[in-house]
Amino acid sequence: MLSRVADNLYWMARFMERAENLARLLQASNELLLDGETMGSRSLNDYWDPVLIATAMEDQFAQLYPQGTVADVGFFMTLHEGNPDAITMCLRQARENARTVRDQISDEMWTELNDLYLFITAPHTLKLFQMSPQSVYDRIISGSLLFHGITDATLARTEGWQFIQLGKYLERADKTSRFLDIRVHSAQTGNALDSFQWTCILRSASAFGTYRAEFGGEPVAEGVIDLLMFSIDFPRSVRYCIRRLDGHLHAISGTPAGTYGNTAERVSGRLLAQLNFGCSSEVLARGLQDYTDDVQTILNDIGQHIFETYVLLPQDQLSVTFIPSADTQQRRWVELQQQQQQQQQQQQQQ
Amino acid sequence: MLLDHYDTEGLFDEMFADNGAVRPHYQMMRERLDTLSKEELDQKIRNLETLFLKQGITFTVYGDQQGTERVFPFDPIPRIIPADEWQVIEDGLVQRITALNLFLYDVYHEQKILKDKIIPEEVVLSAAHYRPEFKDVDVPRDIYIHICGTDLIRDRDGSYLVLEDNGRCPSGVSYVLENRMAMKRVFPQLFGSAGVRSVDSYASDLLGTLQFIAPHAKPDPVCVLLTPGHYNSAYFEHSFLARQMGIEIVEGRDLIVVGAHVYMRTTRGLQQVDVIYRRLDDDFLDPKVFRPDSMLGVPGLVSAVQAGNVALANAIGTGVADDKVTYAYVEKMIKYYLDQDPILKQVPTFLAWDEKDRSYILDHLPELVVKAANESGGYGMLIGPKASKEEVEKFRGLILANPRNYIAQPVVYFSRHPTLTDGTVEGRHVDLRPFVLSGERTHILPGGLTRVALKKGSIVVNSSQGGGSKDTWVLHQS
């Protein structure tokens, strides 16, 4: 398939998954904060600061809200168009990618994604958000789940499907590891906020029930890490995601499992081995933050190597790359492209 | 009932004869409409618009940085053409496209028609879209225009006239197919009984046409559709057609020329491309030959075409045939190449580059429609009777500064068609764009895009300027 199409499918899935995970995090946080109304603003800051840091939005927030209060965080992360990482912007990017490859995805996939985008950008959604943010998050989460389900039920298992899976699992692994990280920056272990935050992290990964069933009692660090980092069968654990990612990489290249044919496979295989044989005590001994930082760096590497292997061919004579980045030169390039595409009036003014 | 107070106002109407009687081929539609209330019809429209929006059947509005997407306004009362009328259109279009392709072959080879002084040499050689780079270059099967969208209007007596030939990158065919799908939802019962010809074969005919022009008659050629990209207003159509044909939709950056062959960049390396259905203007195709700042084209593409290793549909340089000055000579072309009388008439045209015509134009500006020779989409146009003094004077200046670039025509009377408007059904002006495919044989899609000027009295049917569309039903019977 076309390299650009593979890239678009991969990013479509990544942005969709990113939107869903942000919605999950915000929904779980909101729910729990309703119980914690007695918390002072100090504790609220303690809660939201790490969320902003874990999602790498703290600078953007400071810029848009110099006197920002915690009350602004929800809108900022969900609907603010000035925040390039807001859920609404993720959905826009997912849709833009899908629109470019309409001919490669099923009609039902497009309709669901487009519908979700039309929902998030509709004026009444803003009103709904002010009244009941939870219903907005519900719609986003179910929209994303529906999208992935439709993809499973309607798309042939071709290379394009494999690239969609790569995007989905890579993004999910990244988000799960980042959410685990939220704990790290906040208050020391032992206070009420602590168990509160573990609960929130589990809820955002739909893992609370599984945790109770497997470990019982109030959540503690060891159990949460064992479940979200190392579980072999929980579908949002980092290990599970990497196992699937590794499988899809091998399905694309045809290289036998356990071996590698390109750098992306080598790096993902090594990470998988680390996760297969890791445990929570090892993580805590090393430091959770250090460990998750390391995992995220490796995930970035895998993404970069996928791009270099399948999108940026060695024969490439073009001076441009297609990595979405904030780099101004890239943005200028996109603008010029856009202008010329629109100039093409041809004889097509129906 | 909806049509009770319908007034043709003495203009040619598709549905009603001058005496107010419904034309026989519209009888069934009339009866169906009489059973509907305005509210029911409105409801059907709203459902359809939601459907279009959900499916992303939209076009992008130009000059809007946000890239606003809009649903192409759709009118649910179909335009109906009986078989005998259609036969005339079909014969006329086949005749016309045959002559145009012979003309293009001639212009890019021996130029007999110029030497015989049927068409003044300077008209052709000064056309903005004449491409000297392709003089004496052979194109596969000697076909230049493979896809043509010819705009037809109806004169006051109802005869069909050619308004313009769109032989570069005509668009709109996806709306023909989507409108049909929509109409099947609005009037499901009517289709069976009315005997409407199907438009389903377009994509496979188009693919057949593309395969037919593969270089060296290569079997199973790799065909692709080259799009400017998803910011282009017609991107929906590009992706729709690619999907229907089962071919890749590519952007310029997906293609690369190595050793005068064209390849696409895939996850498995480079794959050779044989035929390109390009929806990109000549100017943007190859920055090495045409616009050097084009970011949408493929460097080296022209050299690959010249070497005969890749075929383009349409060929480069077809713009010389649909130039509005060339248009004035098409009837002579038909006579010259085919020794036939034109089946479809066209609108009388005055050429500003001709001194006599020019002084006539300048003396009669307020009565005439003036058009720039190379613009499309209803841009660069003066409608004399509706223009202000300033606009008329502006065009006087433009014509004097660049006479080659302007033509003028008397105001033509587009026929009208009952159209759903706020609160009622009124007559609105329509034109018709049938689609012609020239491959192993010439296919005329039995249907076409009926564009309707939604503004009362307006004759500008372009979507960018308030136009909508209707489904076009060609009947099996007369």
- List the uncertain runs of chain A: 315-326
The average pLDDT score of chain B comes to 90
What's the total count of β strands of chain A?
0
First-residue to last-residue Cα separation of chain A? 32 Å
Fraction of residues in helix of chain B:
25-40%
Tell how many strands the DSSP assignment of chain B holds. Answer: 23
Major pleated sheet of chain A: none
Give the CA-based shape of chain B.
globular
- Strands of the widest sheet of chain B, in order across it, are 3-23-22-19-18
Radius of gyration of chain B: 23 Å
Question: Percent helix among the residues of chain A?
Answer: over 70%
Mean pLDDT of chain A: 86
Unreliably modeled segments of chain B: none
Descriptive report:
The complex is a heterodimer of chains A (350) and B (478). Chain A has helices at residues 3-35, 41-54, 58-64, 70-78, 87-100, 107-121, 123-131, 133-154, 159-185, 192-204, 208-215, 221-228, 238-253, 263-276, 280-286, 288-311, 328-343. Helix content of chain A is 73%, strand content 0%. Chain A has 17 helices and no strands. In chain A, helix 5 packs antiparallel against helix 6 (107-121). Chain A is globular. The longest helix of chain A has 33 residues, at 3-35. Chain B has 16 helices and 23 strands. A five-stranded mixed beta sheet of chain B has the order 3-23-22-19-18. In chain B, strands 13-5-4-20-21 form a five-stranded mixed beta sheet. Chains A and B meet through helix 1, helix 5, helix 6 and helix 17 of A and helix 2, helix 9, strand 7 and strand 9 of B.
Task: Give a nutshell description of this structure.
Chain A has 350 residues and is an all-alpha fold.
Attribute tags:
heterodimer, A: about 350 residues, mainly alpha, globular, B: about 475 residues, alpha+beta, 5-stranded mixed beta sheet, 16 helices, about 30% helix
Please outline the helices and strands.
The complex is a heterodimer of chains A (350) and B (478).
Chain A: H1 3-35, H2 41-54, H3 58-64, H4 70-78, H5 87-100, H6 107-121, H7 123-131, H8 133-154, H9 159-185, H10 192-204, H11 208-215, H12 221-228, H13 238-253, H14 263-276, H15 280-286, H16 288-311, H17 328-343
Helix pairs in contact in A: 1-5, 1-8, 1-9, 1-10, 2-9, 5-6, 6-8, 7-8, 9-10, 9-13, 9-16, 12-15, 13-14, 14-16
Chain B: H1 27-34, H2 38-55, E1 58-60, E2 69-71, E3 74-81, H3 83-107, H4 112-115, H5 121-125, E4 147-154, E5 160-166, H6 173-186, H7 188-194, H8 202-212, E6 223-226, H9 235-245, E7 248-250, E8 255-258, E9 261-266, E10 269-272, E11 275-278, H10 282-285, H11 301-306, E12 311-313, H12 319-322, H13 324-327, H14 330-338, E13 345-346, E14 350-351, H15 355-363, E15 368-372, E16 381-383, H16 389-401, E17 406-410, E18 416-421, E19 424-433, E20 435-438, E21 442-444, E22 449-453, E23 467-474
Helix pairs in contact in B: 3-14, 6-7
